[in-house]
Design brief:
The protein has eleven helices and twelve strands. By secondary structure, the chain is of the alpha/beta class.
């Protein structure tokens, strides 16, 4: 039986051994509350402060600009709603794109229900922000603009620095969801123009339910929660010291390994795309025409083959992929990202996301190249009401 192939790293990643080792003491003997003044509390406080400083160094930030969160969704909500609520009386507008993660889009909609002025910027057919359209919507009424750095469904890399510069030229705060960007692009807040940036731990080998929000000094922001004074009042509640320590180690590893890992993943992605196109010539790779794509995401549609059926067939053969964002699991609606790019509903309904990472290697590519064409042929035969030929799929289970 062939080894299983996990191609859903954009959904989540395995916790790295180095991260787990760093966290274990804080689930045992070093259990103190960092707000306590006794030795157990001081020990926890020291570890928390060190984790904050280590993350800041990796991001080119100051320690007081690092706010711990429960992940990307909370970070996006705190960024969008927190900044908008702090500025809404003078600047009621929010600007984003239709291809953002639902955490950003839902936060913008919530602001709209509270009286905010929602603005959406168009994207190209390759899933890249239309910079002219973006600039036209930036004015003195804009409180915050939010654009995802690396799209979580198709992998396109947005021109964040140029967009941030345009927003800031009119006094708007610029936020970027960097959940898929961390470890894939260079992040240096000391040289960049963004004001707020979200990272999620479980995308880079840390546990689920931990993340960080970079908030540049001087950026106005209201907390979502109320209670204690932790994290300078921006995110009250007893801190998860173990998660903070693990996240710091994961970010350090992602930063130090970024160049080599991107080269490795980029080679695997290219080989996998070429194998798919060679064997299924009418397959469509979404976002392929963009100037820049992250090395770990492939989004492919095969005309006439529904993604749900294909995902089930792949899973039965030990290959794990997804139909798009893991946060939309169970949804039968076509991807809102592909719809915004002008992709037809039928082609969007055939989309499969394959995302590479630590568990990926050449054997993974070879396995998909072996299985994928036979499954497509079988699915097409069934959808056309034709019984599959004897032998189709044999040898690939």
């Amino acid at each position: 039986m062939p080894e299983p192939v996990y191609l859903d790293h954009a959904a989540t990643t395995p916790v790295r051994a180095e991260v787990l080792d760093a966290m274990l003491p804080f689930w045992g003997p070093r259990f103190g509350n960092p707000s306590s003044t006794h030795r157990w509390g001081r020990e926890a406080r020291t570890a928390l402060d060190e984790a904050r400083e280590r993350i800041a160094r990796c991001l080119g930030a100051q320690a007081d600009e690092i706010c711990f969160t429960s992940g990307g969704t909370e970070g996006d909500n705190l960024a969008v709603l927190g900044v908008w609520r702090a500025r809404r009386h003078d600047r009621p507008a929010l600007l984003t794109t239709p291809i953002e993660h639902k955490a950003v889009l839902a936060a913008v909609h919530q602001a709209g229900r509270e009286g905010g002025e929602e603005r959406l910027c168009a994207v190209t057919a390759d899933g890249v922000v239309d910079e002219s359209a973006f600039a036209e919507q930036v004015d003195d009424r804009l409180a915050i603009a939010s654009v995802m750095w690396v799209n979580n469904e198709i992998g396109t890399v947005q021109p964040i620095e140029r967009l941030a510069s345009v927003a800031k030229s009119r006094g708007a705060v610029f936020h970027t969801d960097a959940v898929q960007a961390c470890g894939k692009v260079e992040i240096d807040a000391s040289r960049a123009s963004f004001d707020v940036l979200s990272i999620s731990g479980h995308k880079i080998g840390a546990p689920k339910a931990c993340g960080v929000l970079f908030i540049r000094r001087g950026t106005p922001i209201e907390p979502l929660f109320h209670g204690g004074s932790q994290d300078r009042g921006r995110r009250p509640g007893t801190e998860n010291v173990a998660a903070a320590v693990g996240l710091a180690r994961a970010i350090e590893l992602a930063a130090s390994e970024r160049v080599d890992e991107c080269t490795r993943l980029g080679g695997l992605r290219q080989a996998l795309e070429q194998a798919i196109i060679a064997r299924v010539p009418d397959a469509v790779i979404h976002g392929r025409g963009a100037a820049h794509r992250a090395p770990h995401i492939i989004n492919v549609s095969v005309p006439g083959v529904e993604s749900e059926a294909m995902l089930m067939a792949l899973d039965l053969r030990g290959i794990g992929c997804s139909a798009g964002s893991a946060c939309q699991s169970g949804s039968v609606a076509p991807s809102h990202v592909l719809a915004a790019m002008g992709v037809s509903a039928s082609l969007a309904g055939a989309a499969i996301r394959m995302s590479l990472g630590a568990l990926s290697n050449q054997a993974s590519v070879d396995r998909v190249a072996e299985v994928f064409p036979a499954l497509v042929a079988k699915a097409r035969g069934q959808s056309a009401g034709v019984a599959p030929r004897i032998g189709v799929g044999v040898g690939v289970s």
